[in-house]
Amino acid sequence: MAGPAKLRRDAGVIGLLYASLGSIIGSGWLFGALHAAVQAGPRSVLSWVIGAVSVLFLAFVFAELSTMFPNSGALVHMTHVSHGDLVGKIWTWILFLAFVSVPPVEVTAVLTYANNYMPGLIHPHSGLMTARGMGLAALMLAGVVALNFLAVRWVIAINSAATWWKVIIPIATIAILMAYSFHPHNMVSHVHSTPVSGVFTAVATAGIVFSFVGFQQAIALAGETRNPSKYVPIALISSVLIGMLIYVGLQIAFITALRPQDMSAGWNHLHFTGMFGPLAAIAVTVGAVWWAVLLYVDALISPLGTAFIYITASPRIIMAAGEMGNAPQHVTQLNRHGVPWVGLVISYVVGVMFFFPFPSWQKLVSAVSLITVLSYSIGPVILLRLRTSLPDAPRPFRLKAAGVLAPVAFIASNWIIYWTGYAVAKWMFSAVFIYIVAYLLWFFLIRRRPVSELGWQQAWWTLPYLSGMWLVSYIGPGGVMGGRGIIGFFTGMWIIAGFSLVMLWLAVRAGQTPEEAQRCADRVKTLGSSGVDSSVYPENLEPAP
Known about the structure:
- With about 550 residues, the chain is mainly α.
- The chain has one domain (about 15-410): Amino acid/polyamine transporter I (Up-down Bundle), CATH 1.20.1740.
- The protein is built from 22 helices and no strands.
- Helix 4 packs across helix 13 (about 290-325) and helix 4 (about 75-100) runs antiparallel to helix 16 (about 380-390).
- The protein starts with 12 loop residues before the first helix and ends in an 18-residue tail after the last helix.
């Protein structure tokens, strides 16, 4: 290959909007209405609003940050600038897990719907994938990865076409379900059969926040647009607002289309034939069989479209990790189309591994929601720290009232993590703690570096933060949340709010000095988005685990 390949800047504002909106409308719209209704009943409409508003606060934060660091894999870079190498390594691992785990969720969604016309992919009682289903899932994921070896402009074009389909079909579904079956009294029926806490837990575990965090795709592809200062904020905010309108409409249409007898035992015992494919099943029940057929087709297109764009973005996170010395340098290699092909291969291998511990959509979506929100919870910390350490840095988009909005975004992020429950948190926090221990062992025992080079002064707050979130989940409500039941649900929310403000203050104070932050920012600029410059981080070129 003659000369270094460079990432193409082919994504315009519409392409970025399609990337985010196309990720927001994935498998969440096929399953979210059902799972939200089971947990919150008619109040599930409020769950979608809470989820959208919570994510919108994060979108506001990243609208400023992404224009300061308009590189692909920007969160990796901005974390290093704000809090140094150790925090950067920890959050690179968290971010990688967040991105690479989404395509398996979407592929699982395809197979769950397909089981209605291809029996044998999902166990009828447990809802888990069979061996045959796992094999087909691995092949399907391989096909999505193969398409991503195309040039970025073709990736954007394919996703743009799929996004039009993905937006039109849910909107049409709202109209058709309401036209064929409309029982408005369902909106007030059996309201008290679900706890008020279900309004919040549904945000984290019914696929609501999982859907909305698709806004991040515009950030991941920021390095491939010519005008990130203008295009990225528009794409971030617009995608969340459009997604909220669609999902609220779908939830209302789902609830009002149900037969009253379907929830006669209460929403938490909602049952109807064909629940593995809920929207298509309801379409059949109300007489819109022709639309059910189209929904089965969409159950293939929408999830795979989301998997497609996440597979597009996750190699760019790996590439950024290589640029910052968090991964071997060869992961930054690009093919002749300017695509980070090594990252694609890694994304596929790790993605397939997720099928084994989490062999169902329901099991995967809560875990992915937690780790994704955790990956973006550092955004408010970075924003406030850089306002102090780099006050004069160019900010094409400057968030107003950041002193209020950033803390609210941090609290909202931690609430969502708490709402997923200890049953999920124990696994995802364990994955993070294992990486931290492995890295420390590698740093001290293999590289034999002194403590002074670790960067603990900027990273010490991560241990009480992660441990505190784990502890509150542990002593939180039992039942489906899996905690010990020592504190009540809303007591835990108050504790999380206070804890978040304390940790935010400590984390902001622990950031790099203005001089260190400026040096790191200058180095990031030299990277651009064309690959690693070996002179930038010579001390980091030995790969970390």
